[in-house]
Design brief:
The complex is a heterodimer of chains A (288) and B (217). Chain A is an alpha/beta fold and 288 residues long. Chain A is built from nine helices and 14 strands. Classes of the chains: A alpha/beta (288), B mainly alpha (217). At the A-B interface, helix 1, strand 6 and helix 2 of A face helix 1 and helix 4 of B.
Chain lengths: 288, 217
């Protein structure tokens, strides 16, 4: 079953247009939604939350229409965004009291466990927390009602590496334990290198790459480096994108065996790419 | 789950409580009112402004719609929740103002008990009028733009009043005085205010339900 199903989704905001013909997010996995700033990641997530209304198309979340008048599907989902929307002077205890009544499956013991893990002082005002602590608190709120789907919009932006690691570690624990689905938008691809099962690339409001298993994606691509003369032949056609400084080149291929054959015994180096390598080369190469 | 409407109203009261230090300035209104009990209606409106609209302004500066969007509630429920919150504040403000005016009146000898009902019903009606105008404007347009509309309304009112000569206004005073003693008319102000709020609520909610809050792509 898919946690999210998007069909022919269209949304225009000023000069920006988001167009997602088809996108299925499988249940029980972490899907990374990668795109540059302004690619439409936040717009997509706000459309999923029914905070923005589509011009056309359908969105099903956990089998229910997310664009309709019935918001009950939101009882099974949580949202962790870059902006929480809490008043700065409200205490953590007050925010919990405000949020808790909306979720019948709220688990106070689970919340307290997370609160202790993050060492959060519930009497503190939200504004008095560091950026990392704020995110930890929002995550604790989001997980305390055992959501089936967690929507995250740039959750690790502006966090230091230690907090980010802890944040992602906790996420992995929950996914393993509760079979939760995570849809995580980010331009920090190193986070997704660690936690994502599937990847979607978004560029200028369009799908640059449809849902693909991350390991398979990385496995079928190679970063190749070598002497510039290698680019003179047909091997060049196998590169999605490359940079050549006259002495040597570096590029990304999605058919390593073919590239190897076309290199015809000439020496070159290769390595597994990161998601960032793949995304950047796809954007610069302008290929799908 | 308890009614989401009550949970939304409760969240507004929690937020209002967290703003208590910021709202201390409005205690000044109560003090002024103590000295001038005839300003009952203005006191009610000031308390509404201080609580309901200050809270809305803080909500907007914190981009609270991110939180509201994530909740299992409809836009209509959010909108109705704000109205319910406003009405509750108004229901709290009227007796509070009345109590202050009574105490002040007795202490300073400035309050005429015959105007008690007139003040109460007029305070209620003005509060309802203010709510029905400013609440949808603030929720739909945002605090900053709504303030401009507020200014336009006041300018229009003052322009309208200034077009009437001073002699005419003085001539109207006995009429106003007799109106304030007409029990039927005064009682009519209570349902009239409520109808105004209900009308504004239903018309405003139709627009608010289609409103998109945009801050980023």
């Amino acid at each position: 079953m898919n946690a999210i199903e998007i069909r022919n989704l269209e949304k225009k905001l000023g000069s920006f247009r988001l167009s997602l013909p088809r996108l299925d997010i499988p249940e029980g996995f972490v899907t990374g939604f990668i795109g540059e700033n302004g690619a439409g990641k936040t717009t997509t997530i706000r459309l999923l939350l029914n905070g923005l209304f589509p011009d056309a198309g359908e969105i099903l979340i956990l089998g229910k229409d997310a664009t309709g008048k019935d918001p009950s599907f939101k009882k099974s989902i949580s949202y962790v965004g870059d902006t929480a929307g809490f008043l700065p002077m409200v205490t953590l205890e007050q925010i919990k009291s405000m949020t808790r009544p909306f979720y019948p499956q709220w688990d106070e013991a689970e919340f307290q466990k997370l609160r202790n893990r993050f060492d959060l002082d519930m009497k503190k005002q939200f504004k008095k927390l560091s950026r990392g602590q704020q995110k930890q608190f929002i995550l604790a709120l989001a997980l305390a009602h055992h959501p089936r789907l967690l929507l995250m919009d740039e959750p690790t932006a502006n966090l230091d590496p230690l907090i980010r690691q802890d944040f992602l570690g906790l996420l992995q624990d929950y996914i393993t334990r509760e079979g939760m689905t995570v849809f995580l938008s980010s331009h920090i691809t190193s986070d997704l290198d660690k936690v994502a099962d599937y990847i979607v690339f978004l560029h200028k409001g369009r799908l640059l790459m449809e849902l693909t298993a991350k390991d398979e994606l990385i496995d079928r691509h190679r970063i190749v480096k070598g002497d510039s003369e290698l680019l003179s032949g047909a091997a060049r056609e196998q590169l999605l994108n490359f940079s050549d400084n006259g002495f040597g080149f570096s590029g990304l291929t999605r058919d390593f065996e073919r590239f190897q054959a076309l290199a015809d015994g000439r020496p070159f180096a290769y390595d597994l790419p990161t998601l960032e390598d793949i995304f950047i080369n796809y954007v610069k190469g302008g290929k799908q | 789950m308890k009614s989401p409407l009550f949970a939304l109203v409760k969240s507004d009261f929690i937020k209002l409580y967290s703003l208590r230090r910021t709202l201390l300035i409005f205690l000044l209104v109560l003090f002024i009112l103590f000295l001038s009990p005839q300003m009952f209606s203005a006191g009610v409106v000031m308390l509404l402004y201080g609580s309901v609209f200050t809270l809305l302004a803080y909500d907007q500066s914190a981009a609270a719609y991110h939180w509201y969007d994530s909740l299992p509630v409809t836009r209509r429920q959010i909108f109705f929740g704000k109205y319910l919150f406003g009405i509750l504040i108004l229901l709290f403000s009227c007796p509070l103002m009345l109590a202050i005016c009574l105490v002040a009146g007795k202490t300073l000898g400035k309050f005429d008990p015959s105007f008690l009902l007139a003040n109460l019903s007029l305070g209620w009606f003005l509060g309802c009028f203010f709510l029905s105008l400013m609440l949808p404007l603030t929720l739909i347009l945002g605090s900053v733009k709504a303030r401009y509309f507020n200014m336009i309304i006041y300018i229009a009112l003052f322009a309208g009043l200034s077009s009437v000569s001073g002699a005419d206004l003085i001539g109207l005073l006995p009429v106003i005085g007799s109106l304030s003693q007409n029990l039927f008319l005064l009682c009519l102000l209570v349902p009239a205010g409520l109808i105004l709020v209900l009308l504004s609520c239903f018309i405003g909610s139709a627009i608010y339900c289609r409103k998109e809050f945009i801050d980023a792509i």
